[in-house]
Amino acid sequence: MNTAMATANRISYQALTTFATSVFTALGVPRDRSGLAAEALCYGDLTGIGSHGMANLIPLYVPLLQSGRCDPAGEPRILSDAGAAVLIDAGRALGLWAAGAAMDLAIERAARYGTGLVSVRNATHFGCAGHHASRAARQRMIGLVASNCGRQRIARPPGGRLAMLGTNPLAVAAPAGDYPPFVLDMSTTVAPAGQIRRAARERRQIPEGWLADDAGRPVTDPGAYDEGRAHLLWLGSQPETGAYKGYGLALVVELLAGVLSGAGLGPEPESLLGDGTSSGRDDDIGFAALAIDPGRLRPVGEFRRDAGTMFGTLLDCPPADPGRPVRYPGWREAETARASLRDGVPLSQALGRELDDLAASLGLRAPVWEQRS
What we know:
Elements: H1 3-6, E1 9-11, H2 13-26, H3 31-46, H4 57-67, E2 77-81, E3 85-89, H5 95-113, E4 115-123, H6 129-137, E5 142-147, E6 170-176, E7 179-186, H7 193-201, E8 211-212, E9 218-219, H8 223-226, E10 231-232, H9 243-259, E11 285-292, H10 300-315, H11 331-343, E12 345-347, H12 349-362
Parallel strand pairs: 3-4
Antiparallel strand pairs: 1-12, 2-3, 4-11, 5-6, 5-11, 6-7, 8-9, 8-10
């Protein structure tokens, strides 16, 4: 048994989302939006992606709302509507809610036109891209979500000395027949910044290939990232092992999310004034929500059958290690979610104490823990 998991606090998923809802509501977010935002945030903890779950509530979302960088009651506005393609100004609304609303609109348009693209600018951080893409999969559609990081610059072009791009996450979700949905949720860097910071909080080293110093030497101390002594590497890590592929994917995301929507960009002239360390803020984030309805192209039953065949055949692939069967993106997350719904969502002791303190500071009822360690 994982020792950290065994000693973690546990809380029911309902209690966790109820508490998150109360926090967002206390910070001025309308209650209906708060509930949807809480689901998006807690998805990370429910599915085992703790770097993008409640651990971000205090360091990221509370300051965003309290500083005014995120407007709790911001109203998205449609700027252009071409039927299957819509451009929206998010009005700095809470991204955890606004991204889901954008995907729901994309799904609605896909049901009418076969595809629906919602391009969004002036947005704020929206948590797990996979959560929002999965909304399409639940409607028997294929969903894609791509987001830049506004004008936040933390990764350098291969061979470059200045940070010019964010982690630029990309997610794709789709039905998988009778199996758990396919959900690919990835940063275009080797690891997202949240995962680096989580390792720093837990005082553990990270693998070589995630960070490098100015001389290109590998750095395994996660604290070096926020201290400006190391920068993130792209998928592939080094040019000779495929870093240009991760970099290229980041540029695809920047095009789809930033250039298409008119949002803030990482590679703007002001980025040339940097000193090599992270610069800018993740304001005016852009993202794209795309939904594709397979039923408009072929009988949906046939699509479901073929998807089941594809993913089922992968699951049947003989493993090199009998103890590690072949899986696909989304399988582990679905298994983790089932266990968390049954046994309670595990959160670290340190995070549990932080949430208790947050409740006290906002005059809210503390989270109702099922197990305290």
